[in-house]
Amino acid sequence: MTSTPQLHPLLLERRSPRAYDAVSRLDGDVVTRLLEAARWAPSAMNRQPWRFLVGLRDDETFKGVFDALAPGNQTWAGSAGALVVALAPVTEGDKWTAYELGLAVGQLTVQAHAEGLFVHQMGGFDAAQVKEGFGVPEGYEAYAVLAVGTLGDVAELPEHLQEREVAPRERLPLGEIAFSGSWGSPLAA
To answer: What Gene Ontology molecular-function terms does this entry list (predicted)?
Structure first.
């Protein structure tokens, strides 16, 4: 990982592990603080379109969300302390709702890290199964499932995931994502 000392440690040290401690439980107050962090995300016209379906390990909601995960995610996500589905209404031509949901999930993720927890966001799940299984109203879409929990032992993961777990956290250079003047012209900060 390239060091960026100007960044807050909560951002610099954040990562998306797959190794979760299967014994550790999430305290209800901690879960509330994570959801409060999401609740206070910026929102155009204060619409607050985000909704969350929260399952704590071993409850029925967790089991239902787990069952909707893609098989590859099921190999590790069952050890998380919580599985949280991030949902928002879908309105044709509305580009802000998904953006705002992302902001809320981002704030939840940073709060989790501040609490000593980790979040792994997943797109590999059956959104229709989530909607049907939990009575999600028409017009809402499940965008992501978040595994939240305490870091576990990498050695307990399947071998092919162990390598990914210890790989360096990499990001594109700033010159490839921030432009000025015209597309592809790197920002000269």
So the answer is: oxidoreductase activity
CA 62 from centroid of its chain's CA atoms: 15
Is position 160 within any domain? no
Structure tokens at 19: 């190794």
8 occurs within a structural domain: no
CB 85 within 8 A of CB 52: yes
10 within domain boundaries: no
CATH of the domain at 135: 3.40.109.10
Per-residue pLDDT tens digits for 135-178? 999 999 999 999 999 999 988 988 889 888 888 888 888 889 99
Indicate the burial class of 39 (C-beta count within 10 angstroms; 0-12, 13-18, 19 or more).
Answer: middle
**pTM of the entire predicted model:** 0.91
Q: Give every CB contact of residue 45 below 8 A, 6+ residues apart in sequence.
A: none
Domains of the chain: total = 1
Asked if residues 20 and 76 have their Cβ atoms less than 8 Å apart, the reply is yes
